Amino acid sequence: MYNRLKEDKELYPLERKNFFPASWKKRIVVKTLGATLFIFCLMGEGTVESAEKVTVGLVEEVILLPWKVKIPARIDTGAATSSLDARDITIKGKTVEFSLPEKYGGLRISRPIVAWRTIRSAAARDQRPVVVLEFCLGSQIIRTRVNLNDRSQVKYPLLVGRNALRKNFVVDCMKERCAPPACPEVQNK
User: Fold this and answer.
1) What are phi and psi of 104, to 5 degrees?
2) Extents of the domains making up the chain
3) Residues 98-110: pLDDT tens digits?
């Protein structure tokens, strides 16, 4: 009988009592505790905070401030940063001049460049100027960094990314145009 048990242990070494090293056991415990804490956070405060936030759909109308130009925007939680359709981009030192699409008035805008970003897309990598813009989305005025790019091949001239949605919004992907611009600056129009 003893020899049979010894042979089984040699054939099945994974059934040993201490299979995982001590460092792995610590990692498993920490990850389990972390996952549990994360779930409790989602269940607890997330519900309370969402009542205070503005719910937006996948597509919303926004108003660029201070120019009061109304344009449609695609809300994209998968995009890290926001992007605006800018035509005829001209760089003059630390300033960029660009035009909005003719469909939205063709307004010529000049803004200081705050950074340059390398943006990866399916086609290539682009260096794009980044400017700070304000726009009204729902009842909120958002001041955020926006990269400038010719978006003439896509449907929406403004892509609102996570950087603009970070604290004030909940995205309901089953809705569209559920938060019309209602900022005080827009009401005085």
Assistant:
1) -115, 30
2) 2-48, 54-187
3) 999 999 999 999 9
Q: In DSSP terms, which residues pair with 136 in a beta bridge?
A: 63, 141
Query: H or E stretch including 133?
Result: strand 125-137
**Residue 67: which residues within 8 A CB-CB, separation 6 or more?**
107, 109
Going by the DSSP 8-state scheme, the letter that residue 71 receives in this structure is E
**pLDDT above 90 as % of the chain:** 51
Cα 150 from chain centroid? 20
Two tokens at 136?
């009204």
**In 3-state terms, what secondary structure has residue 9?**
helix
Question: Terminus-to-terminus CA distance in the chain, angstroms?
Answer: 93
CATH topology of domain 54-187: Cathepsin D, subunit A; domain 1 (2.40.70)
What is the Rg, in whole angstroms, of the alpha carbon atoms belonging to the chain? 26
Tell me how crowded residue 105 is: count the other CB atoms within 10 A of its CB: 15
- Which of 36-40, 114-118, 172-176 is least confident? 36-40
| pLDDT single digits (tens) 44-98 | 433 334 447 889 999 999 999 999 999 999 999 999 999 999 999 999 999 999 9
Identify whether the C-beta of residue 128 lies closer than 8 Å to the C-beta of residue 149. Answer: yes
Reading the block at residue 122, the tokens are: 């399916």
